[in-house]
Design brief:
By secondary structure, the protein is an alpha+beta fold. It has a single domain, classed as Hypothetical Protein Pfu-838710-001. It has an eight-stranded antiparallel barrel, surrounded by four helices.
Length: 194
């Protein structure tokens, strides 16, 4: 945690966190919510998220966003992953911001330095299944999606995470035909261009 001019920010600066991630389109959201609820170890958490993405250098899979959630601290999120379908490694760093005022200042700074790539709003239904965050997302203007994030422990391999993800995909009844590449922002831009 660092403090500068009374502003407090918390960040994981020692290393990037890791998870194995997979995204898919959802054709029957209510049915998938029922299955996820049965598998979950804890109660459902419903989140209202507003993500502002910023332009980045042309490094494949490298993204930066400012996330605002109702009732939670804003956070700056950097992540990097390959744009392929199916389970893949995602490395990320988080920086919790003190409050909305700090988020607004950071948003202006990043917009001036990098430019804005776009904004997404979604309702996220979060279920925890073991070490995996199961997200069922209703993305404004895009539709229904599912995202698995198998949060890897430092001693776990990517292959172990992929095995966990594959097992959960099967239990959730997610078809390989519904797996997607890229981010929601990529899908939004592709939809806007068509």
């Amino acid at each position: 945690m660092s403090k500068r001019n009374g502003a407090k920010m918390e960040a994981n600066t020692e290393f990037a966190l890791r998870n194995v991630e997979v995204k898919a389109r959802v054709r029957q959201p209510e049915k998938l919510r029922e299955v996820a609820a049965k598998l979950a170890d804890s109660p459902l958490v419903e989140l209202q998220q507003n993500d502002q993405f910023y332009k980045r250098p042309a490094e494949a899979g490298d993204r930066l966003k400012l996330r605002r959630e109702v009732g939670r601290q804003p956070q700056l999120v950097w992540y990097s992953r390959e744009d392929v379908s199916g389970p893949k490694l995602s490395k990320y760093r988080l920086c919790l911001l003190q409050d909305e005022e700090q988020a607004q200042k950071l948003d202006l700074l990043l917009a001036d330095c990098l430019g804005k790539a776009g904004q997404l709003k979604k309702t996220r239904y979060l279920y925890m299944v073991g070490q995996t965050r199961v997200h069922l997302d209703d993305v404004q203007g895009l539709g229904h999606f599912m995202e698995l994030e198998v949060v890897l422990r430092p001693d776990q391999t990517i292959e172990e995470g992929q095995t966990i993800a594959d097992d959960l995909l099967e239990k959730l009844g997610v078809s390989s035909d519904d797996l997607i590449t890229g981010s929601y922002m990529d899908a939004y831009h592709a939809q806007s261009c068509s």
